[in-house]
Amino acid sequence: MNAAGALFGGVILAWIDEAAAIAARKLFHTTNFATVAITGGIYFRRPIFLGDLVSLQSTLVRVGRTSIAFQVDINVFDSKDPAPVCSVQEIVFVRKDAQGTPYPHGLSPLLITHTP
User: Fold this and answer.
1) Does residue 15 sit in helix, strand or coil?
2) pLDDT tens column, 45-61
3) In this protein, which residues make up the domain named HotDog ACOT-type (predicted)?
4) Domain extents in the chain
């Protein structure tokens, strides 16, 4: 926590990385060899304070040949504002073999569910 009683941004980013990694590993059906290639569009709307109960949601937004990308949102329960307190627009994971070389994952772009 910082001097204002808010969670450090770096801790929040570590949570986001972990949430997206879990989602990537589920889709890749592996616990290894999925690495972050890009993280972009990080928005902190308001601090997360001590005692806030939060949830993280990873949403698949893009499927490439060797990569998949997620949007990750952090929400605070019981908040009057339904918008996420923090959002990462895109975090990209690349499927790699044991030597670290990217290779096709075989996932279909049809995995992406679009909501109106």
Assistant:
1) helix
2) 999 998 899 999 999 99
3) 1-99
4) 9-109
